[in-house]
Amino acid sequence: MTEEQKPQELDDELFDLIGAVGAGIGVAKDEGLPPPAARQVGTDTAEDAAAKLADLKRLGQT
Q1: pLDDT tens-digit series, residues 36-61
Q2: If DSSP states are collapsed to H, E and C, what string results for the chain?
Q3: Farthest-apart Cα atoms in the chain, separation
Q4: Is there a contact between 53 and 17 (Cβ–Cβ < 8 Å)?
Q5: How far apart are CA 37 and CA 53, in angstroms?
Q6: Which of 49-57's residues contact partners 24+ apart within 8 Å by CB, and which partners?
Q7: I want to staple 24 with a disulfide (CB 3.0 to 4.6 A). Which of 33, 41, 46, 55 is the partner?
Q8: In whole angstroms, what is the distance from residue 37 CA to residue 44 CA?
Q9: Distance (Å, rounded) from C-alpha 24 to C-alpha 44?
Q10: pLDDT in tens, 7-18
Q11: Are 20 and 49 in contact (CB under 8 A)?
Q12: Higher pLDDT, 4 or 21
């Protein structure tokens, strides 16, 4: 891996996490949850996505 590839991989991971947060908040809003609950769902979703990305990275799949 070159130094030029590292920023792109970090960007990809960041965008994946942002997408996970957005998806979690979207689901929470669809269910009619108030903002604090929606934030918690988004946080939980992002944490799950971060753990999955870390696992995939350890396995060399990203």
Answers
A1: 887 787 788 778 887 887 887 888 76
A2: CCCCHHHHHHHHHHHHHHHHHHHHHHHHHHCCCCHHHHHHHHHHHHHHHHHHHHHHHHCCCC
A3: 46
A4: yes
A5: 24
A6: 49/16, 49/17, 49/19, 49/20, 50/17, 50/20, 53/13, 53/16, 53/17
A7: 41
A8: 10
A9: 8
A10: 667 677 777 777
A11: yes
A12: 21
Provide the b/e sequence for 33-59 (b: ≥16 CB within 10 Å): eeeeebeebbeebbeebeeebeeeeee
Alpha carbon distance 11, 33 (integer Å): 30
The token pair at 55 is 């696992």
